[in-house]
Write a structure and sequence with these properties.
By secondary structure, this protein is mostly helical. It has 5 helices and no strands.
Length: 124
Amino acid sequence: MLLKTKINLKKFFLLSISTTILFLLFSRGWNDIIGILIVYVATVLHLGMLAEAVFELVKSQVSEGHIHNVKDKIMYLFAGKLLILILSLVISRQIMGNRIIIPVINYVIQIFILTFSIRSKGRE
């Protein structure tokens, strides 16, 4: 699993949870809180699977020069992440109604947080 070595998990979860708490302040009741938390958990799973698939793809390209040996794993990761995201949005839409935009905006912000949390050789 490449996520532990490529992503600063402490930075990711610190920023991720703090922005989610900020969006929880916009909730009107327990239904909104449950909807936001469902999408948040699905977002973390989705972004983890996305990062793992991309890191596997890049690693296989660099080491072997071709991707056929990890093609199945990448396909399952992308299919799983898509299924998780769609199911969480459908469930949250049923719970929250038209206020589904709140967790969707949080999802977009989580993508930027993941990008900011990726370790590169030059920075920690």
